[in-house]
C-alpha cells in the first residue's frame, strides 16, 4: 500500500485542521496505508499530552497517541514554546528539518495543512 505524509502547522484550538487530519489518518490506516506526520509551528500542540484545554473538546493528542503512525515534531518549535520532549505523547519523536526531509523523500503523497 501507499505511504501518506502530512505536515500540520496549526494547533487544535483555532482551526478544524486537526480534526480533519485525524479523520484522514484514520481513513488511510483503514485502507492499509502507512502514515507519517510532521508537526511544526503551532502544530506541535497536537502532540502535547498535558494541555488542559483538551479536556473540554476532542482530545487530539490522545487520539493520535492511539494510532500506529510515525509522528515527528519540530524540536526547535517545541523549545520555542517552552515545552520539553517529555511533554509529547508517547509515539511522537523530537525531530528536526532532516527528519522532515526524510518524510518528504519516503512518502508517495504529501499534504500540508497551514
Task: Provide key terms for this protein.
114 residues; alpha/beta; Hypothetical Protein Ychn, Chain: A; five-stranded parallel sheet; 5 strands; 32% helix
Characterization of this structure:
The chain has helices at 17-30, 60-65, 75-80, 97-106, and strands at residues 3-8, 34-39, 70-74, 92-95, 109-113. It is an alpha/beta fold and 114 residues long. The chain has one domain: DsrEFH-like (Hypothetical Protein Ychn, Chain: A, 3-Layer(aba) Sandwich). The protein has a five-stranded parallel β-sheet, with helices on both faces. It is globular. The termini are far apart.
Structure summary:
The chain is α/β, with parallel strands linked by helices and 114 residues long. Helix content is 32%, strand content 23%.
Tell me the layout of helices and strands.
Layout: E1 3-8, H1 17-30, E2 34-39, H2 60-65, E3 70-74, H3 75-80, E4 92-95, H4 97-106, E5 109-113
Parallel strand pairs: 1-2, 1-5, 2-3, 3-4
Q: Which CATH first-tier class would you pick?
A: Alpha Beta
Note the beta-strand portion: 15-25%
Q: Which structural class should the secondary elements be placed in?
A: alpha/beta
Spatial order of the strands in the main sheet?
Answer: 4-3-2-1-5
Tell me how many strands there are. 5
What's the oligomerization state? Answer: single chain
Q: What can be said about the biggest beta sheet?
A: 5 strands, parallel
Q: Count of helices? A: 4
Number of domains: 1
CATH topology: Hypothetical Protein Ychn, Chain: A
Radius of gyration from the CA trace? 13 Å
Low-confidence stretches: none
Mean pLDDT: 92
CATH superfamily assignment?
DsrEFH-like
In whole angstroms, the N-to-C terminal distance is: 27 Å
Helix share bin: 25-40%
Question: What form results from the Cα inertia axes?
Answer: globular
Order of helices and strands: EHEHEHEHE
Assigned CATH architecture: 3-Layer(aba) Sandwich
